[in-house]
Amino acid sequence: METLSGWKQVIGRWGEKLAAEYLIHRGYALQAANVRTPHGEIDLVARLEDMLVFVEVKTRTSRSWGFPEEAVTSRKQAHMLAAAEHFLSQHPDSPETWQFDVIAVTRRAGQAPEIEHFENVIG
């Protein structure tokens, strides 16, 4: 039997795969996935033309704990910013223009997954 933590990882990875496919279908080029930094993990790094996009993916199997995007708190945003700055320092050839997006995936039994894409979430 899988633990709750193991189940969350399975669902999270499934959501990240779905988000990557969603982005590719919309013309983004996937640069990296599950990038570990001292400040946390960057789920996806994609490129759209001359812009780098750091993507946080939040996946839920119900809305009993709220909408997936609500989990991207100001504290989480601070970690995302620090992780992106670390990534950029390690990849000096990256485009100068970049932004943060959140992709919220909801998977409910018997229904097609719902995907919502929130662009440029950190100003």
Q: How would you summarize the topology of this molecule?
A:
Elements: H1 4-25, E1 29-37, E2 40-48, E3 51-60, H2 74-90, E4 97-106, E5 114-118
Parallel strand pairs: 3-4
Antiparallel strand pairs: 1-2, 2-3, 4-5
Describe this structure in words.
A hairpin with a 7-residue loop joins strand 4 (97-106) and strand 5 (114-118). Helices cover 32% and strands 35% of the residues. The chain has helices spanning 4-25, 74-90; strands at residues 29-37, 40-48, 51-60, 97-106, 114-118. With 123 residues, it is an alpha+beta fold. Strands 1-2-3-4-5 form a five-stranded mixed beta sheet, sandwiched between helices. The chain has two helices and five strands, in the order αβββαββ. The chain starts with a helix and ends in a 5-residue tail after the last strand. The protein has one domain (4-118): 3-Layer(aba) Sandwich (Trna Endonuclease, Chain: A, domain 1), CATH 3.40.1350. The mean pLDDT is 92.
